Amino acid sequence: MSVSNPTLITFVIYIAAMVLIGFMAYRSTNNLSDYILGGRSLGSVVTALSAGASDMSGWLLMGLPGAIYMSGLSESWIAIGLIVGAYLNWLFVAGRLRVQTEHNGDALTLPDYFSSRFEDKSGLLRIISAIVILVFFTIYCASGIVAGARLFESTFGMSYETALWAGAAATIAYTFVGGFLAVSWTDTVQATLMIFALLLTPIIVLLATGGIDTTFLAIEAQDPSNFNMLKNTTFIGIISLMGWGLGYFGQPHILARFMAADSVKSIANARRISMTWMILCLGGTVAVGFFGIAYFSANPDLAAPVTENHERVFIELAKILFNPWVAGVLLSAILAAVMSTLSCQLLVCSSALTEDFYKTFLRKTASQVELVWVGRAMVLLVALIAIALAANPDNRVLGLVSYAWAGFGAAFGPVVLISVIWKDMTRDGALAGILVGAITVIVWKHFELLGLYEIIPGFIFASLAIYFVSKMGEPTRGMLQRFAAAEADFRLNK
After folding, report:
1. pLDDT tens digits for 350-406?
2. How far apart are CA 40 and CA 424, in angstroms?
3. Region 5-398: CATH code
4. Do residues 194 and 60 touch, judged by C-beta distance below 8 A?
5. CB-CB contact of 61 with 337 (8 Å)
6. N or C: which terminus of the chain has fewer CB atoms within 10 Å of its end residue's CB?
C-alpha cells in the first residue's frame, strides 16, 4: 500500500473516534424516537452544524472544487443558489416544521408528518412518500460511497472495489449502533473538521503559488475567462445552477435536524451558526478549486492525477502541500463530509422502512426494542444496495447527487413548504405534489429537456398541482385546528 504512515494513522484515529461516539450514543438510545430523532434533544449548535454537515457531502470537497478547477468562477453560481436556498429554508420551514410535527402526532419522519397533517387514513400518502425516500436516497447514498471510495483509492492506492468497502464500513458501523444521536454528534465534529480544512487549504495554496497577485496572474495566463462568471453560461445554465437552492425545502436528512431541535427557541441561533459555517465552507471550496488552477499550471509535472479526474483537486493539493500528519487531518475532512451525509441518509431510509412500512403495515404492536433493531437491520440493507449501485468506477459524485437532490427537492420541497405556511392544503393536494414532482424529475432528466436542471420544472409543476388540487377540496376542521395551534405555538416561541 503506497501510503505514508502518518496519513494512515490519522485516518484510523479519526474513524475510531467516530465509532466510539456511536457507542456512546448507543447508551442514550432506548426507543425508536431516540434512534430516529434523538428524542428531540438537539441544542442550537448541534442542530446548526449537523444540518450543515449532513447537507454538505463529498461533493463539497470533491465535486464542486473539481467543477471550479475545470471551468473557473462560472461554476460558483451553484454556491450562491445553495446559500440563498438554505437561508430561506431556515427562515420559513425550520421553526414551523418543528412545531407542526409535534402538533401532528409527534411525527418522527416526513411520511409520518404528511399522514398526520393531512389525516390520511388510506396510508397512500405514507407509502408513496416512503417509496420516494427509498428510491432517491439509495442513489444519494451511492454518491457518498463513490466519494469515499475515490478518497481511499487515491490516498492509499487501493483498488476501487476494496476502497468501496473500506469507505463505507465505518459509517455503517456508527449509524447501525448509535442511530440519530451518533449521527448528530459525529456531524458536529465533522463540520468543525470540514471548516478547518476549507479555510486552511486555500491560504496554503496561495502562499505556495507566491501570494494573491502571482496566483491571479497565473490563473489569467492559463485562461483569462476563468474570472468571468458568465463564461460559457446561458440564462438557462445560470438558473439551473441557482435552482439547486430549491432542493433544501425537500431534503429529509436536513429537515430531520429541524424536527429534532429541542425547541423553536433554538432555531434562530442555529440559523445564524449554520449560515456562517456554510458561507465560509462554500467560499473555501470555490477558492480551493480556483487557486488550484494556478498551482497546477505552475507545477504541470504534478497535475496528472487531477487531469485524469478533476474531482481529486483538493485531495492532491492536501497531499502535495502539507506535512503528512496535517494532510491526514485534511483528507479526513473529506471522509467527514462523506460520512456525515451518508450516515444521515442511511438513517432516514431506515426510519422510512421501520416506521412507515414495518410498524404501520406489518407489526403495529412491535415493541420499542424490536423497532430499534429492525431500524438497524434496515441500515445494513440500504447500505448494501447503495454499495452495489456505486460499484461502477466511472460514477461521478456530482452527477449522482444532482439527480437525488432534484428528486427530493421537487417531490417533497413544495409539499413541506406549502404545508407549513398554507392552512387550506389538503391530502389530495399533497399526494398530487409528491407524484407530479417526482415524475417530472424522472421524465425531464430522461429527455434532458431545454438543458434545464430538472428540479426547477419539478418544483414549479408540483407547487401548481398542490394549489389546484387542494382548491378542489377542503381541509377538515381537525386539520385547520391543529394548523392554527401549531402556528400560534410557533409565533409565541420563535
Report:
1. 888 888 888 888 888 888 888 888 888 888 888 888 888 888 767 665 567 788 889
2. 28
3. 1.20.1730.10
4. yes
5. yes
6. N
